Amino acid sequence: MSTINLRVNGRAHTVDVDPSTPLLYILRNDLGLQGPRFGCGLGQCGACTVIVNGAAVRSCITPTSSVKGEITTLEGLSQEGKLHPLQQAWIDEQVPQCGFCQNGQIMTAKALLDKNPHPTDEQIRQGMAGTLCRCMTYYRVQAAIKRAAGRNV
Ligand code: FES
Ligand code: FES
């Protein structure tokens, strides 16, 4: 066991864990953050995505001891009770079906827009590739990203 310091959604946390424990388990089980989901557990679906230092990271295959810097989860997007523009766009476009993948869709989209605030359709497709949705919400995900980016949809 090791003592590991994490900074999540602007708050400092100290956890005492096996350093190889996936970050997803710490976020969900120790810190009570249920936004990131366990899907495949293999880094292949994106349901567990969080943002670490501005990059989308698959937390199910990320050892907690390897994480340095600020972690943002879905819970960290809304500030002072105000929805993030992506969250509002998700509502406006009625994106989710079952909802299981949607954490990964929104967090991957956030990392994309933070790097490229005005992506083309092709850049959105490339940026979101590999974030899987069994309910095939891909077109509405794309529309919501365009809406959040201020583009006509
Ligand atoms: S649960 Fe992490 S990529 Fe599928
Ligand atoms: S909304 Fe059901 S898996 Fe994407």
Could you provide a short overview of the structure?
This protein has helices at 23-30, 85-92, 102-115, 121-128, 138-148, and strands at 2-8, 11-17, 49-52, 55-58, 70-72. The protein has 153 residues and is α+β, with helices and mostly antiparallel strands.
Can you lay out the helices and strands and say which pair or pack?
Blueprint: E1 2-8, E2 11-17, H1 23-30, E3 49-52, E4 55-58, E5 70-72, H2 85-92, H3 102-115, H4 121-128, H5 138-148
Parallel strand pairs: 1-5
Antiparallel strand pairs: 1-2, 3-4, 3-5
Helix pairs in contact: 2-5
This protein binds FE2/S2 (inorganic) cluster (2 copies).
Residues 38-41, 43-48, 58, 60 line the site of one FE2/S2 (inorganic) cluster (FES).
